[in-house]
């Protein structure tokens, strides 16, 4: 007998439909084969499915059993095919007689028939919804995550026995309804606040500008000057993610296996701080299963490189492509996957190997050659992709002992939110959200300069040998500063501030 069950697999963060076809023959020697470009995890599914069914007193393997995962020309992986394979065998054998065309099945089986949670449920549930499939059956641990997709009836079960009872009509169960969706107006408590930062007015201003346009930002200063403290507080001045951002980021985290028993979309912007010994694959993504890396896990949030120049040069250089394109493409095992990488890069670095170049408290002990070799890790093309650079000086005693609190994150966040709203309205038909994402055509369209701004920009271009990319970065940052001041046109003061933040060592 023959049966066909609907399932899915992951291509990046996109769910792709699969038909699990089963033929249980009445003739021939006992065998159990799975075909259709299945990986090792799926091939091992044979043993898990056989043990699960035998432990439930179902004995089908005295006859040839053939499973085909269609389409057969697409490579598939994942242990989540266990449940659909088992159900297809039960359906082909006549144990389950009801029509299963409106169900999609996902789940890994234990040898005793228990259902285990799997990664990437949200993306595959989204596929089910888009394909017009009304019902999805998943492990109970994945039930809340799958229910984040609206208008999809989600049924979660602890084991295969419960699933069979439900499909045969012996057990009645209501679909799970999730009312814990994202609130875009909700303020998030990060537990830290900008009011704790003493002094550092220039760095605080640069951080606010960076957050207002999601610009890439580097802080340079001696040890203990407050670079890391400022960086870790930047998420506290960012508004919650939009629904689109939250859905995309939650799918990435689900594929990466970072979501467990979550009943809501992620609305807290990610803050990812990898160790300086991290490899290219850890940062960008890859491995045998082409998993997302830190640049994708930080999507819609912040990737913070503390002690930036302690990272290997190859890691820093490999960041150039996602900083420019806002996505990464990984080719592994005969297939290519693409992950979003729309992150804001924040980095902290010392000015020299010893860390005290230019410090008023302690003399630098580095040679000129050592300083040059140290800074050479940050190449010109990489530096070109940075929007803002701020020198962070050591906090003086007077500021440190000042009992007066600085401006709170809530107050700064309100201004950042206003700038984000202006940008959301401006780019509502462009497919982007922030000034930092503008293409060159958009820069020409939206970065309109008044007469005085044009003159100072011409003066800057004539005096400084800046690249076309740096010119574009200055205009994008100027647009953000203008938005912060509710100005429709970019003015002279906006250009000057953006220029000083891009090239702090240069004078107009």
TrEMBL record:
SMART domains found in the cross-reference section: AAA
GO MF annotation list: ATP binding; DNA binding
PROSITE patterns: MCM_2 (PS50051)
Domain MCM C-terminal AAA(+) ATPase: residue ranges: 293-392
Entry keywords, A to Z: ATP-binding, Nucleotide-binding
Matching Pfam families: ChlI, Mg_chelatase, Mg_chelatase_C
Protein family per UniProt: Belongs to the Mg-chelatase subunits D/I family. ComM subfamily.
PANTHER family named among the record's database cross-references: COMPETENCE PROTEIN COMM (PTHR32039:SF7), MAGNESIUM-CHELATASE SUBUNIT CHLI (PTHR32039)
Protein name: YifB family Mg chelatase-like AAA ATPase
Species this protein is from: Candidatus Mucispirillum faecigallinarum
């Amino acid at each position: 007998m023959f049966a066909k069950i609907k399932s899915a697999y992951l291509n990046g963060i996109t769910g792709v439909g699969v038909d699990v076809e089963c033929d249980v023959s009445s003739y021939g020697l006992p065998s159990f084969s799975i075909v259709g470009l299945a990986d090792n995890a799926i091939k091992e599914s044979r043993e898990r499915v056989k043990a699960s069914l035998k432990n439930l007193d179902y004995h089908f393997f005295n006859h040839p059993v053939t499973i085909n995962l269609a389409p057969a020309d697409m490579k598939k992986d994942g242990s989540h095919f266990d449940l659909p394979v088992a159900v297809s065998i039960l359906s082909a054998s006549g144990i389950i007689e009801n029509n299963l065309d409106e169900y999609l099945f996902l789940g890994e089986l234990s040898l005793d028939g228990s259902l285990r949670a799997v990664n990437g449920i949200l993306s595959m549930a989204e596929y089910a919804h888009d394909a017009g499939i009304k019902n999805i059956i998943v492990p109970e641990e994945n039930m809340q995550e799958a229910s984040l997709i609206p208008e999809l009836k989600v049924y979660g079960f602890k084991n295969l026995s419960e699933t069979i009872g439900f499909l045969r009509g012996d057990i009645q169960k209501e679909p799970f309804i999730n009312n814990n969706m994202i609130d875009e107006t909700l303020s998030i408590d990060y537990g830290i606040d900008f009011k704790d930062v003493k002094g550092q007015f220039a760095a605080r201003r640069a951080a606010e500008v960076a957050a207002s346009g999601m610009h890439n930002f580097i802080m340079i200063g001696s040890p203990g000057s407050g670079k890391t403290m400022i960086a870790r507080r930047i998420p506290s001045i960012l508004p919650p993610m939009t629904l689109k951002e939250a859905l995309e980021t939650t799918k990435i985290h689900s594929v990466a296996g970072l979501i467990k028993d979550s009943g809501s979309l992620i609305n807290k912007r990610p803050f990812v701080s990898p160790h300086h010994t991290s490899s290219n694959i850890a940062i960008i993504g890859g491995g045998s299963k082409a998993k997302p890396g830190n640049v994708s896990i930080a999507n819609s949030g912040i990737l913070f490189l503390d002690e930036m120049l302690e990272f290997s040069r190859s890691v820093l250089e490999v960041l150039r492509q996602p900083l420019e394109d806002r996505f990464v493409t990984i080719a592994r095992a005969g297939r290519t996957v693409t992950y979003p990488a729309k992150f804001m890069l924040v980095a902290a670095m010392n000015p020299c190997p010893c860390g005290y170049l230019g410090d008023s408290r302690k003399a630098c002990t580095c040679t000129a050659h050592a300083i040059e070799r140290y800074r050479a890790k940050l190449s010109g093309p990489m530096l070109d992709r940075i929007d803002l650079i701020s020198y962070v000086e050591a906090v003086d005693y007077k500021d440190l002992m000042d009992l007066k609190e600085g401006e709170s994150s809530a107050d700064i966040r309100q201004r950042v939110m206003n700038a984000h709203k202006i940008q959301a309205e401006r780019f509502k038909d462009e497919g982007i959200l922030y000034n930092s994402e503008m293409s060159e055509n958009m820069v020409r369209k939206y970065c309109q300069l008044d007469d005085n701004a044009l003159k100072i920009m011409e003066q800057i271009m004539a005096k400084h040998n800046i690249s076309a990319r740096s010119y574009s970065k200055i205009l994008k940052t100027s647009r953000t500063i203008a938005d912060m001041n509710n100005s429709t046109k970019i003015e002279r003061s906006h250009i000057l501030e953006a220029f000083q933040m891009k090239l702090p060592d240069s004078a107009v």
